User: Which sequence fits this backbone?
């Protein structure tokens, strides 16, 4: 007996499942504690709930119909795949395949279940990323309705267009691991959702001080190292290209983080290096290299780190203050900048910097190696293709996000009532992340008939203060 089917490579399968787990860790716990540490302490529980709920809801939708919409057989022309489940034996143990990519890349050497799970964690992190735009005011039950609909009508379409062999894949658009499908989409949808839900209370915007920098450090560290699976898993093989993608990811991220810190020190308002600034730069590097990781060389990775972080630093300081509509929309955690703009810039830069000497897949026999080339390497049309794909994602995600929220709004308000906006987690979830210590109870008070109304109560359990109008 043998545990391995003839087509299965234990190494490739082990790496694919490991990479998927690393990406999953980027959502839970990394973004739960990163976002949970950035927000005000009264929204820490709500943030964690939104992250975990989105992760769970996406998996349910993914295996019941959305995976095949993104990576199955064509359904509506080359726009989206045909919905189908992957919960049967074949959907978990048969040899993985993406129908429109057969013959264009080597046959997968792992089961369909590994492909389903790997692509699920990518799908799940996308709404989790843009929850940062609407945190602290969108209703939790609205989020529960929104996520499955958005995965179905926005994410699955993006995935099919660029990764499943759809229209833009056929045109040669490059998105190695989600600069467009994930990060540009998250930035656009988060921004539109923030505009529709409305801003936080004025006093919350004025007191937007992180509640736990150590949690932010833990989340950011897991996010950075988890990205090794994010970009290193996307060749689908434990190959030399996977190694290059991992090295380029870390190089671009290191350069981007230091670029942001140096710009803070030289040109920032206080001219001081800050940890939050460094995290912003880190995220810009991670996002910027994502569409390019296995297509560019190390010099390209350095260029992407510098350019992406530098441009986002400038836009972050300028657009929210002076340019419509950015000065009218309360994007709470700046997702449109560190993910939307960074993903856009990274996607455009791969159109310039893709190096044909970077081999994605080795050719066999008379088949040439699979490589790509950008404008700087003799393929000027690649930049136009990248721009066209970006515009499609921007328009489609903006329209779909707006439409979903407009329909939901017909049945329930998108925004929490003012009493919940003031009180936060204790009214919304009945929990707080940092409960104040209960006063000690003297033994005589326990079971001595003292009326409950006279016993000490948790200070957060009191009625919320009078609502302060925005």
Assistant:
């Amino acid at each position: 007996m043998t545990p391995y089917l003839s087509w299965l490579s234990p190494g490739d399968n082990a790496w694919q499942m490991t990479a998927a787990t690393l990406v999953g860790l980027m959502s839970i716990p990394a973004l739960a504690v990163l976002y949970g540490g950035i927000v005000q302490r009264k929204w820490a529980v709500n943030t964690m709930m939104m992250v975990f709920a989105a992760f769970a809801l996406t998996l349910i939708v993914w295996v019941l119909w959305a995976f095949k919409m993104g990576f199955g057989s064509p359904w509506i022309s080359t726009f989206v795949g045909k919905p189908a489940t992957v919960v049967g034996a074949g959907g978990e143990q048969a040899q993985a395949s993406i129908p429109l990519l057969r013959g264009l890349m080597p046959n997968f050497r792992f089961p369909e279940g590994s492909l389903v799970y790997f692509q699920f964690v990518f799908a799940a992190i996308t709404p989790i990323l843009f929850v940062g735009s609407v945190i602290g005011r969108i209703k939790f039950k609205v989020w529960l309705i929104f996520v499955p609909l958005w995965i179905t009508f926005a994410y699955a379409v993006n995935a099919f267009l660029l990764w499943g062999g759809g229209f833009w894949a056929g045109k040669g658009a490059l998105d190695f691991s989600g600069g467009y499908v994930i990060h540009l989409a998250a930035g656009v949808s988060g921004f539109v959702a923030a505009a529709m839900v409305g801003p936080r209370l004025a006093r919350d915007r004025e007191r937007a001080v992180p509640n736990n920098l150590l949690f932010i450090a833990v989340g950011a560290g897991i996010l950075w190292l988890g990205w090794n699976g994010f970009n290193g898993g996307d060749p689908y093989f434990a190959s030399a290209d996977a190694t290059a993608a991992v090295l380029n990811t870390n190089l671009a991220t290191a350069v981007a983080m230091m670029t942001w810190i140096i710009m803070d020190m030289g040109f920032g308002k206080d001219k001081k290096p800050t940890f939050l600034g460094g995290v912003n730069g880190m995220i810009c590097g991670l996002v910027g290299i994502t569409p390019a990781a296995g297509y560019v060389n190390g010099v390209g990775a350095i260029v992407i780190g510098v350019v992406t972080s530098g441009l986002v630093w400038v836009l972050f300081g300028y657009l929210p203050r002076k340019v419509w509509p950015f000065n009218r929309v309360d994007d709470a955690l700046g997702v449109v900048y560190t993910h939307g703009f960074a993903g856009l810039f990274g996607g455009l830069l791969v159109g310039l910097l893709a190096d044909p000497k970077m081999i994605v897949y080795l050719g066999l026999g008379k088949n040439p190696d699979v490589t790509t080339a950008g404008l700087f390497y003799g393929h000027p049309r690649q930049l136009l293709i990248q721009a066209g794909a970006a515009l499609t994602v921007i328009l489609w995600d903006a329209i779909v996000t707006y439409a979903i929220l407009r329909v939901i709004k017909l049945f329930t308000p998108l925004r929490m009532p003012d009493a919940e906006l003031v009180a936060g987690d204790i009214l919304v979830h009945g929990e707080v992340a940092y409960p104040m210590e209960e006063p000690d109870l003297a033994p005589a008070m326990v079971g001595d008939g003292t009326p409950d109304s006279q016993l000490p109560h948790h200070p957060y359990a009191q009625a919320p203060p009078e609502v302060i109008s925005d």
The radius of gyration is 23 Å. The mean pLDDT is 92. The chain has one domain: 10-418.
